[in-house]
Amino acid sequence: MKYHPDRTIGLNAEMQKAASNRFCKIREVYERVLGDAG
Predict the structure, then answer these.
(1) pLDDT digits (tens, 9 = 90+) for 4-38
(2) pLDDT at 38
(3) Entry's SUPFAM superfamilies (predicted)?
(4) Helix locations, the chain, DSSP H
(5) Distance, CA of 38 to CA of 14 (rounded, Å)
(6) pTM of this prediction?
(7) What is the pLDDT of residue 8?
């Protein structure tokens, strides 16, 4: 199976977007927990 550069780049962008979204959610929850604790 050959890699198609454009498809690989698109997949990479999707993964980065998903990772940043997940990070934002985690950070949001983390800050809420810290806010409740502090």
Answers:
(1) 677 788 888 999 999 999 999 999 999 999 987 65
(2) 58
(3) Chaperone J-domain
(4) 5-37
(5) 36
(6) 0.54
(7) 80
- One-letter identity of residue 34: L
Name the domain count of the chain. 1
Q: What is the dihedral of CA 15, 18, 19, 23, to 10 degrees?
A: 170
What secondary structure letter does DSSP report for 2? Answer: P
- Residue partners of 18: CB distance under 8 A and separation at least 6: none
Domain enclosing residue 32, as ranges: 5-37
Token couple for 26: 């985690």
Q: Tell me the backbone φ, ψ of residue 4, rounded to 5 degrees.
A: -100, 115
